[in-house]
Write a structure and sequence with these properties.
globular, 8 strands, TIM Barrel
Amino acid sequence: MIHWEGVMPAVTTKFTSEDELDLAMFEKNIRAQVDAGVHGIILGGTLGEASTLANEEKETLIKAALEIVGHKVPVIINIAEQSTKEAIAVAQNAEKLGAKGLMVLPPMRYKATDHETVVYFKAIANSTSLPIMIYNNPVDYKIEVTLDMMEELLECDNIQAIKESTRDITNVIRLKNRFGDRLKVFTGVDTLGLESLVIGADGWVAGLVCAYPAETVAIYELVKAGKINEALDIYRWFMPLLELDISPQLVQNIKLAEVATEIGTEHVRAPRLPLQGKERERVIKVIDDAMKNRPVLPEYKNLKSEV
């Protein structure tokens, strides 16, 4: 069982300079996330460069994450496959390995119809007992999961949450109005994090949390405790960094931020390459400016929620 709430980082995959998995740095980052108070770990998303990972590497990361976190937080596996058959295989293998949940994208590459998308999601849900978060990101993946489609999907008891990344923040309210607590709503856009939480989102699947876990969790906990102004102070500082998440080079950007906070390296897997030239200078300046003004956080753990 997963309590679908809180901050869940979509973690990066750490590589060595020889393009092998860097499990030592992976462990350092995961421990930093857990120590900061995140509520789950999501493996194998876009930030995790999953499309470049071999199946055995994915298994290695799942096993390593499960060993690192123990029973402290759930490990959730992202599914972004090209065929229903492959997606089902990934889901069943994740369950066998001990993962606690799934985050499922619509079919990759093929722009499925609404009906095909619903059938795809249901086939995965019916193949496993793991709880599922649907990832709704029509901006990047060109398929929107509408409210009517979600109504059909909720016929599957284990479809329990949605990562809402339409960029239309009012969709958080629409989802809550229609489905109430039957569907837990997470924002998936870093630059809409605080706003989404204030209007009722249950959680935040975050990106810059990979480099700044404490700041991200602090914003969530302060909002839930009704301390909006304190959360806003951190969020204003955070915004230039959060904007690094809404870029085709978000992986390179966030890995540079992880270097600054000493919980990552900037090694990426080709065809991605480290940032170069003026764009690299721009991103490093954003990070350097933020590090010079990094806020002292209030005590954010064990706050009493007002929600």
